[in-house]
Amino acid sequence: MEISNGLSGFNVNLSSINRRINLLSGICPEAIALLQDHQFTPDVTRILRNMKAARQVEAVELMVASNTITVAHVEALLKATPPEQRADVPPPERDSKWDAQRKLFEFIAPRQ
After folding, report:
1. Which helix (DSSP H) or strand (DSSP E) does residue 36 occupy?
2. For every one of its 112 residues, what pLDDT tens digit does the chain have, with 9 covering 90 and above?
3. C-alpha distances in angstroms, 91 versus 55, 79, 94, 112?
4. Residue 102 to residues 7, 27, 51: CA-CA distances in angstroms?
């Protein structure tokens, strides 16, 4: 049975239900355990998803310790997160084989 078929007569916003179902997807279990007894907005988890698991735990620990689990606090922590600990930053592109050979050639025989 599809959710939309079962709730058609109840005047229920399906996007709201789907948001709540997916609230903790992409959040590591350790961070979820730390957030378990605290209230926070769904935007906090949206921002936490931009961090890798270890940084999620660290950020949640900082917010819980200061008793401020807010969007402003998690945004500040995201901005202070190094690129290698962020999930939303693509890794730097590796040099192609051609670039590596060119660099080696220029090192061996520098231009005059």
Report:
1. none
2. 455 556 666 777 888 788 878 888 899 999 999 999 999 999 999 999 999 999 999 999 999 999 999 999 999 999 999 999 999 887 666 656 667 777 777 777 766 6
3. 17, 17, 9, 35
4. 63, 43, 36
- Write down the residue that tokens 């401020």 correspond to: 68
Residue 51, beta-bridge partner list: 86
**Nearby residues of 61 by Cβ (< 8 Å), 6 or more positions away:** 34
In whole angstroms, what separates CA 65 from the centre of its chain?
Answer: 20
